[in-house]
Every structure is written in C-alpha cells, then in structure tokens.
Amino acid sequence: MTPTLLILAAGMGSRYGGLKQLDRFGPKKLTIMDYSIRDAIACGFKKVVFVIRKDFENQFKEQISNNYVSEIEIQHVFQEIKIEGLLSQRTKPWGTGHAILSAASAIHDPFAVINADDFYGKKAFRIAHDFLQNKCTPNTYGMVAYILSNTLSPHGTVSRGVCTVDRNKHLVSVEEHSKIHEKNGLISAKNAASEDCCLPAETLVSMNLWMFHQEIFSGLSQAFEEFLNQYAIEEGVEFYIPSYIDDQLKSGKISVVVEQSPDKWYGVTYKEDRERVDKALERMG
C-alpha cells in the first residue's frame, strides 16, 4: 500500500484575484503547497497527485511539481468544467467533490485530500498518514479537524464545514456554514438554510483534510451523476465533498473518525491575508 496525497489545485482564486497557489511565502519563498508537500514527504507519503487546470499545466510543473520528481512519485490530473454529453454553459468548476472524482484514474490506494492554498502543519500530515496506514477501510474514513477560531480571516468572511462529533470521535454530521466572521468577540455565520447563527469559538470545522479509501470513487461517481441531473443548469451550485460525506453518514454507509489538530490553520482567502501568512511562516522558519 502506498498512501497518496491528493492536492486540489484547480481553484481559480477569484476572491484573492489570481493564482494564489503559486504565490510564495516565508524565509525560503515557497508556495503554501511546497510546505504541504515537504511535510507530507517527511511524514511518509510516497505519491502525490495534483488536480489542476489544463491551461496552467506547464507553469504548474515548472514552478511546483518538477521540483519533487526525485523525492516522490508525481501524477497530474485535470478538473474539466465541460462534462462529456452535457450541454451546459457553466464557467465555474463543479466543486470539491468533482475535483476529487477527477483523480479516480490516478489513485489506487488510501489517500489524503488537501487544498493547495491551505497551510495545515506537519502534525496534520502525521495524523493523516498514520490513519491511512492503520485505520482506513472501504467504510471507515478520517478527517483532521481544526478549532474554528484558529481558521478565521480578519479580512473577510469564510465558509467552513461545521462538524458534530460524538464522544467516540466519530463524525455525526458536517454542515456547510458561510459568511463566518468574528465581531466584538462573537463568531457569526449563516447556516445551510441561510439563517443567521452564532458559533462557539471551539467548534470543530473541516478544512478539507480528509482521509479516504480508494473505493470512495464508486459512490462519488454515482452521487455526481445525481447532482448533475438536478443542478446541471444552475451556475452557482457546487458538488461539495462535505455534503456527500454528510449524506453517506446519514444513510449509515460509512463512519468518519475525527482527529483534531492543535495547530493554527493558515490560508490566503483574501489578498490582505498574505502578509499575515508570510509573517507566520517566517516565525516557523
């Protein structure tokens, strides 16, 4: 078995205003992705699969993946907006669930999933690798969760998958919340029904660091077909992996073990986040 790291790097970075996946931070002027790849290699991952867009393949290889060909097995797959046999004028990607599904042909072992523009910390990769080696099964997945207050941006609202976890560290549900921001010591948000709500600072949230068995692709493919039948002509609707996992949990088909990271998450959601992330990585060396 070769635990694989799947990096979702096809996002447009619309709020940030460019290909933020290729921006550089810290004393060594590395991309956030570089930090993740280095941490993953140090924790025992042997293969990395990148989900990218075809239009920046050459730039991506030159600036990122070519630097690691002697250290880890590398493969690239493409997340396409155009779906064969589907007449759609859509211009946005179909979401994280579809991005993961795009890698089905390249992954043959249990794998971890991360976002390219999120800094997770080495502890998270150590947790993920251990889970994939020892606990992952076709019906048992894993997730590394973060404390909500450790994942906010001072420069705008964010969206997070809010997790309900039982006493045995199993995920009960994950519900997408949007417009999350802190003001006057309170964290406000809109829940899945677009209702205003407040969230405790210690709420556990998903930052899309999942651990999956490779058999997930069969169910994911079927769910995406059902999604297209219902939402193919709606530009703004996306096929989110947390929503798929939540449906699978409620139907009793899977269980998800939740491991909590004590680290602070860093990400560049907005241009203004850049300085904060840069200083944090400078401190880490």
Describe this entry's structure for a reader:
This protein is of the alpha/beta class and 285 residues long. It has one domain: Spore Coat Polysaccharide Biosynthesis Protein SpsA, Chain A, CATH 3.90.550. The protein contains seven helices and 13 strands. The strands form two sheets. Strands 1, 2, 3, 4, 6, 7, 8, 9, 10, 11 and 12 form an eleven-stranded mixed β-sheet that branches. Strands 5-13 form a two-stranded antiparallel ribbon. Strand 1 (4-8), helix 1 and strand 2 form a beta-alpha-beta unit. Helix 1 packs across helix 4 (122-134). The longest helix is centred in the last third of the chain and has 16 residues, at 216-231. It is globular.
The biggest beta sheet, please? 11 strands, mixed
CATH fold node name: Spore Coat Polysaccharide Biosynthesis Protein SpsA, Chain A
The secondary-structure element order is EHEHEHEEHEEEEEEHHEEH
- Tell me how many strands there are: 13
How many structural domains are formed by the residues?
Answer: 1
> What general form does the structure show?
globular
